[in-house]
Amino acid sequence: MKIDGAFNAVDIAISGLKAQNKSMEAISSNVANSRTTDIGNGTPYRRVEAILKAGEGDISGVELDDIAKDMSSFTTVLAPGHPQADANGYLMMPNVDIPVEMMNLNLASRAYQANAAVLKRYQGMVNTSLELLR
Amino acid sequence: MVNLNPNVGSVFQKPGATGQSQKPAGSKDFGKVVENQLSEVNSLQDDSAAAVKDLLVGKSQDVNSVVAAVAKSDMSFKLMVGVRNKIIEAYKETMRMQI
Fold this sequence. Notes:
Chain A is of the alpha+beta class.
């Protein structure tokens, strides 16, 4: 991201909004698939996480680095009646933890609000400067 | 005509000859500066209008980019209006000047 120009703060705040949007998408996907036992190849849904990275330069925006899969082990539940249960009656469930997702959701939404607040405050600063013209 | 003061003499010369070269080197025409800034503000306005239109039509889903375009065009427009008011004020002040 370029850091020269009069609208750096705007661009950086917007990049933050976009990044938190992506985190929110990942969390949304996790919550929606928290009980998806089969994603088409017989394995349950694997939790994803949005990995963010800073842009180039000392002052930079944030960008999406990667959507990483959580490689922790799946949880198993005893469900003998389930069509996808194994021979012992155990069923593999996604490695999604709803309380963890709720926590991440809170973090993402707070960070989104913070970026919006920065944008708003910056606009206020510009307006304050323009008041001096009057 | 005997030219006693070269600065006064330049007034009588035809514009475009030596009268124009009296300006210090590197200074830009004020009108050009204003024109450039105006066209920049105008292009930002066009950008934000296009972004809003794309969003409303459904061509784009990116609300954040629209917010960025609108914020930029809003701020630059306010600056432009501020400078314009200042210029008009200065012009009026000049016109009111007693000669």
